[in-house]
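We were asked to recover a plausible sequence for a given structure. The inputs and outputs are reproduced exactly as logged, with field labels preserved.

PROBLEM: sequence recovery
POSITIONS: 429
GIVEN STRUCTURE:
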């Protein structure tokens, strides 16, 4: 009988695409897989032959609401309480839909956005595999990467992870309600993101590469760094005739995109336009969701709406983006010097890792970016031969990793161990 795995994730493209890659790999290994995600990604998931479950939210519409833009890009914090309430509702809807999705599953794979899956696994008596795209288990080696926290030494570094638990506590309110009303479970005695309700460490997969972010030495053995989970394009995408003519008309352009964070579009567009004029080079700009009006940019810029990173990035000379884990991984795997303009969460961490690897300038937060800073960074990206050589070497190393196979083997071992444990328990009783 085929084993069935439920995967629950909510968020933007960077929060969904790695899990689709995992679902595809599990399917190749003979598993039945259902992937629960935002409504935005139904077509993408189904197009790869994976069963889809709508977890109840269109994330693009939510992000593009004006108060979200005001709260993030303009730091108008009076909008935050309403956003947090909406976030709680989003999590509760996802939890209820994930509960239905997980019936009959042999395991559930979740992340910090869907930590309610820990309770689902407890109620259904199946294993849960926690995952993360950034290093979040507490460590003494560096402070929590999700916030602007200085490195003040081992003791403070370990304590800094309390901030993440406080944030998670807010979203535990809907989680606890669903735990009681839907799953019939009592209050959690202990818990968190990486522990079950009894305080035991959860099996955890980190879908990034130790080449880019070395595994901390003080992590528990249950935390495994697999390598990145790349969702390679399987379409027949190729440059359009117009894009090909642009590529052929001069030196390789720089890719510039702002990912799925549609904040500050007017400011971003003007900043980019001025910086490109100062720099004088060529660029490919992604429209995406990400806060750029490409129609206002000069002729030295070619705008693309949708283009797979694994096919587009090899055609450019360098990449500039928001610093999301997936885009950072794609740029480095393509061997391209990288400059990040972080906006939120772990993006600054990945920018610092790029800098530490010698593959790009230090990250600069988008809200503090100026045309001069961006123009200077573009010049360095396209002229610094040491950065180019470092990026090429990192890219070669990343292409030799197979994070998805490592993850599938781990999930299979976790399911088998759980089933063996259940059988032993049945014999003893």
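RECOVERED SEQUENCE:
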């Amino acid at each position: 009988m085929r084993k069935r795995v439920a995967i629950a994730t909510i968020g933007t493209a960077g929060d969904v695409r790695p899990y689709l890659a995992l679902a595809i790999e599990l399917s190749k290994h003979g598993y039945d897989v259902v992937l629960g995600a935002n409504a935005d990604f139904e077509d993408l998931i189904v197009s790869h032959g994976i069963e889809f479950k709508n977890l109840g939210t269109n994330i693009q519409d939510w992000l593009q609401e004006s108060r979200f833009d005001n709260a993030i890009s303009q730091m108008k914090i009076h909008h935050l309480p309403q956003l947090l309430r909406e976030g709680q509702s989003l999590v509760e809807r996802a939890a209820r839909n994930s509960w239905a999705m997980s019936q009959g599953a042999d395991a559930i794979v979740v992340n910090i956005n869907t930590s309610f899956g820990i309770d689902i696994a407890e109620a259904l008596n199946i294993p849960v595999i926690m995952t993360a795209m950034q290093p979040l288990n507490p460590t003494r080696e560096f402070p929590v990467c999700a916030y602007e926290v200085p490195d003040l030494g081992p003791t403070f570094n370990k304590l800094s992870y309390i901030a993440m638990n406080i944030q998670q506590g807010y979203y535990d309110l809907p989680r606890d309600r669903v735990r009681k009303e839907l799953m019939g479970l009592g209050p959690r005695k202990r818990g968190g993101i990486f522990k079950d309700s009894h305080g035991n460490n959860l099996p955890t997969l980190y879908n990034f590469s130790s080449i880019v972010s070395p595994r901390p030495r003080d992590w528990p053995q249950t935390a495994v760094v697999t390598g990145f989970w790349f969702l390679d394009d399987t379409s027949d995408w190729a440059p359009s005739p117009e894009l090909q003519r642009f590529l052929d008309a001069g030196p390789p352009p720089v890719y510039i995109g702002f990912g799925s964070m549609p904040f500050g579009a007017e400011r971003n567009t003007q900043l980019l336009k001025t910086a490109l004029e100062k720099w004088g080079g060529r660029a490919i700009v992604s429209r995406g969701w990400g806060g750029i009006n490409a129609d206002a940019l000069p002729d030295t810029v070619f705008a693309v709406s949708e283009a797979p990173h694994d096919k587009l990035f090899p055609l450019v000379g360098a990449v500039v983006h928001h610093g999301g884990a997936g885009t950072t991984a794609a740029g480095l795997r393509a061997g391209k010097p990288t400059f990040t303009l972080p906006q939120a969460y772990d993006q600054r961490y990945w920018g610092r890792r790029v800098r530490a690897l010698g593959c790009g300038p230090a990250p600069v937060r988008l809200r503090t970016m100026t045309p001069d800073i961006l123009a200077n960074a573009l010049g360095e990206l396209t002229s610094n031969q040491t950065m180019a050589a470092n990026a090429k070497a990192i890219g070669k190393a990343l292409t030799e990793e197979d994070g998805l196979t490592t993850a599938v083997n781990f999930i299979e071992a976790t399911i088998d161990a759980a089933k063996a444990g259940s059988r032993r328990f049945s014999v003893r009783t």
